[in-house]
Backbone:
């Protein structure tokens, strides 16, 4: 009888441990993946990466972004670029609010269109957050997007960038 109770206790504890591990794995989804019924990509293979690069902690959405950040840090240390940043500048496709401000957490700068344009209120893509901002030695700024596969949402964001922020190098 005692063996049976111990076996039952072991099975219950094992079940709880498996549930906790499964729940933890499901919570590690990339942070900027909005629900999209048209997107059929299997995101189960996309793994976010947390890393410390030059003393600063980053949370990358994929290993491709992490590898590109390592490449940029090497370029910076070799003196080929002046600097780089990860997901710090948000480009809005609407006018600056008259009252208050739009400042999501983790974003250091929000850039609004200077040409007076604004997307339709029903538009799904209202802002764009490029993965990397590279500052070249001559002071020129360039934005880079790392994608494993281009979705319709990403294409719309890039097209909106060309229309609303034509002077930005992307």
Residues:
């Amino acid at each position: 009888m005692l063996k049976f109770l111990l076996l039952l206790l072991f099975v219950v504890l094992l079940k709880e441990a498996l549930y906790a591990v499964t729940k933890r794995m499901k919570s590690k989804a990339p942070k900027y993946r909005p629900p999209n019924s048209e997107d059929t990509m299997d995101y189960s293979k996309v793994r976010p990466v947390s890393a410390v690069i030059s003393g600063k902690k980053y949370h990358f959405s994929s290993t491709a972004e992490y590898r590109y950040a390592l490449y940029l840090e090497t370029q910076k240390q070799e003196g080929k670029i002046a600097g780089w940043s990860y997901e710090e500048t948000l480009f809005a496709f609407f006018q600056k609010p008259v009252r208050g401000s739009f400042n999501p957490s983790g974003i250091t700068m929000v850039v609004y269109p200077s040409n007076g344009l604004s997307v339709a209120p029903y538009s799904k893509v209202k802002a764009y957050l490029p993965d990397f901002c590279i500052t070249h030695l001559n002071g020129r700024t360039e934005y880079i997007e790392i994608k494993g596969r281009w979705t319709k949402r990403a294409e719309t964001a890039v097209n909106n960038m060309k229309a609303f922020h034509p002077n930005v190098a992307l």
